[in-house]
Amino acid sequence: MAKVPVQFTLNGSEKAEFIDSGTTLLNALRDKIGDTSPKGGCHQGTCGACSVIIDGELRLSCLTLAETCNGAAITTTSGLAEGGVLHPLQRAFLDTFATQCGFCTPGMIMAAKVLLDHTPNPSRDEVVEALSGNICRCTGYEPIIQAVLTAARANSQNAA
Amino acid sequence: MAIRRGRGVAAINYPTGMNLGGDPTQALVHSTPTGNFMVTLSSVDLGQGMKQIMAQICAETIGVPTDRVVVDTADTDTGPHCMGTFASRGTHRAGNAVIQAAREARQVMLEVAAEELEVNASDLETDGQGNILVKGAPQKSISIFDVALSAHFKRGRSISGRGMFLIPRSYPEKETGAMKPSTCYAHACTVAEVEVDDETGEVTVLTVKNVFEIGRALNPKMVEQQLVGGSWMGISHALYETTEPYYPNRDHGGTDFNQYLMPGPGDLAQTEIIVLERPSADGPYGAKGPGEMCANPQIPAVANAVFDAVGVRIDTLPITPERILRALKAQAAN
Ligand code: FES
Ligand code: FES
């Protein structure tokens, strides 16, 4: 099959690959580029584990064809820490024990980041709404909700 | 037609581990040349935090800080044997094996230190900070770093230990059927409050209050995390999850996350967790198995609460609106 070129920025650095036409962004990121932070839970858009941020919007990378991302700016959880310092959401997930097996965690963090980017001080209901496309088997969700609220508080204190 | 409230209680005993062909786990511990300690296991951490707990247990037994211990669970082909991470057995079985291995390693470590300090090994103690001191004369001491260097490069000793923990298989007595399938039981009690819509059959769990007796909580925050997740999972089993909705008929069985129902973050009951610590006799530092057991008592508690609310006894899981409506219909017909 003919390969197609794709070019985008991933967590701020330029990436260019030749991929099979029809390759999902999830598979391109994990298998071609080696960023395994987006997880493949269902490959059909129902679990949220593969969530990434494309041009500021939350997207399911399992339902996104890589070749439609030409020129896009893509953010994944592996790009959040800066110089070894964890992003406030990552810090909050650790501090509130919001991760067990961790399989849902990168998708949860992506969903939470988009929420906080648009709504820095969300209500609990807004957090629940933002996470409702993401499945977690282990935590019972409450610690994750608390992590997002904790990160929001930390952000607003830093801004103040 | 109305929304009806009910409250249900359930209590469980839950065995730690299992009784099939005997229930063993082995562990190996050895020091690196710089005095860190490796724990080698085939037991797998599925996210419960087993690696952290094994590091704590090893560190406590040898007398070093937890961050001096690395736990390797990499390969079931090459590691010391473990039956697996299930039946709430990981902490109890692997923890006991790690204690035995760490004790043996500690003994060698103290012997090497004794040679360096020219004292008896039995006169030595650890300070938990990475040093070995002479009891009563703490100015006479040596770091574990230096002990490990000496063992490796001077004295030719391996600071290591082997651990094995086995609960042997228990067979029933021929006459009475009596047996001892487990040596260690955790306990839990749950009170659940529900609302049942007797027109739609829908159940909402309002509150769930759990008390768990889990021996010693070796890492209290991780125990709490496990119990909160388990309590949610119990409710999920009670009301939502099945791959065989019309068992044994396979029709309508879910094949993916689209069709396999699990509650999401919007469906949470108000949850309370209380931990009672009663150290177990044969557990590592008094621990029992909290893992699987914590998702059990919610199920009968919810079933009892549904009975309390609308007077029908649902004895097939999950307790779906359809089952409730069929039972209400049968009740009205009688
Ligand atoms: S893997 Fe994309 S939503 Fe599940
Ligand atoms: S932490 Fe395991 S799925 Fe969420």
UniProtKB/TrEMBL annotation, chain A:
Report if keyword Coiled coil is assigned.
Answer: no
Q: Which residues cross the membrane?
A: none
**Per its UniProt record, what InterPro entries does this chain match?**
2Fe-2S-bd (IPR002888), 2Fe-2S-bd_dom_sf (IPR036884), 2Fe-2S_ferredoxin-like_sf (IPR036010), 2Fe-2S_ferredoxin-type (IPR001041), 2Fe2S_fd_BS (IPR006058), Beta-grasp_dom_sf (IPR012675), Diverse_Oxidoreductases (IPR051452)
What GO annotations for molecular function exist for this entry? 2 iron, 2 sulfur cluster binding; metal ion binding; oxidoreductase activity
- What keywords would UniProt list here? 2Fe-2S, Iron, Iron-sulfur, Metal-binding, Oxidoreductase
Out of the domains of life, which is the source? Bacteria
Entries under PROSITE patterns matching the protein: 2FE2S_FER_1, 2FE2S_FER_2
- Answer whether the UniProt record assigns the keyword Iron-sulfur to this protein: yes
Recorded protein name is: (2Fe-2S)-binding protein
Query: Source taxonomy lineage?
Result: Bacteria, Pseudomonadati, Pseudomonadota, Alphaproteobacteria, Hyphomicrobiales
From TrEMBL, chain B:
- Which InterPro entries does the annotation name? AldOxase/xan_DH_MoCoBD2, AldOxase/xan_DH_Mopterin-bd_sf, N-heterocyclic_Hydroxylase
Q: Name one GO molecular function term.
A: oxidoreductase activity
One Pfam family, please name it.
Answer: MoCoBD_2
Instruction: List each copy of the Aldehyde oxidase/xanthine dehydrogenase second molybdopterin binding domain by range.
Output: 3-267
Q: Which residues does UniProt call coiled coil?
A: none
What is the protein name for this chain? Answer: Xanthine dehydrogenase family protein molybdopterin-binding subunit
Q: Which organism is it from?
A: Mesorhizobium jarvisii
